[in-house]
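Ticket 4471: requesting a sanity check on a complex prediction with iron/sulfur cluster. Repro inputs:
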Amino acid sequence: MTEKELIKKIIEVKKIKRAIILAHYYQVPEIQDIADFVGDSLQLSQQAAATDAEVIVFAGVHFMAETAKILSPQKKVLLPDLKAGCSLADSAPADKFGAFVTEHPGYKVISYINCSAEVKALSDVIVTSSNAMKIVQSFPADQKLIFAPDKNLGAYINGQTGRDMLLWEGACEVHETISTERIIQLRMQNPDAKLIAHPECKAPVLILADFVGSTAAMLEYTRKSEFKKFIVATETGIIHQMQKLSPEKEFIVVPADETCSCNDCPYMKLNTLEKLYLCMVHEKPEISLSAQLIEKARIPIIRMLELSKNL
Ligand code: 13P
Ligand code: SF4
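Returned structure tokens:
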């Protein structure tokens, strides 16, 4: 089957099943182009909570599809490849994290959405990279806070707000590989470019950046900016939307070394058009969670959605 025929089939089956396709900015371009909605983690969870479709096809990674299931438990949630996990979510196993929380009575627990449903159930509130700063600041200054699992995002927020949150030692394997040395070289070769970075990057990258923000915020920044060239420190998938919204601008990915594609997320890139089609036809792999877990994990996610209303 050609790609054109496959796309036609996906559109047909989507209609028959009353399905919606939600895709993250890190998906391959052909999936982004066929999706009903492309967004960052927060926008995707808002869409999952609001949709009236019967089936949600999540072109993203496991924790995102789980979040959709928690927000719309009566709907069927499909993930094209069940192996599409997340190194950051994996860096906080629920049993170890639960023990850590128990060791710190009196602390409120703020968890980045990149974590398992079990870790969400242990949290007071969930955040994404687009609302984390605001939600952290909504706690009284003297409230002791745990931030998990991303130590880079946590340290960045501590630095920006003067807070002293206790950080879980987790990180994203993709953003951790983004090279500061390569960025410095690229800046010297492109003095007219702005450096934009996702807050999952390491501190030296964030210090160098002209703008730090979520995938949606970076996209908006490049769209509105008068500058014509950007060095982009995040996963490569986002370039597709940046280029689409600003065809006249130039985007340079880091590391821009042709021998290395290590800032392609290996989990995000497991999803393909073919798997997307097959998962709709067979209605699997399907996300299933116990009612008890959904009930517990839902509370901090709903709290996040409430706190994000005016963002
Ligand atoms: P955002 O979509 O919130 O920018 O986060 C990126 C990410 O790590 C998704 O895995
Ligand atoms: Fe997880 Fe990093 Fe991939 Fe995002 S880019 S899904 S944080 S491994």
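Notes from triage: Residues 178-253 form a domain with the Rossmann fold fold (CATH 3.40.50.10800). Leaving this open until the requester confirms.
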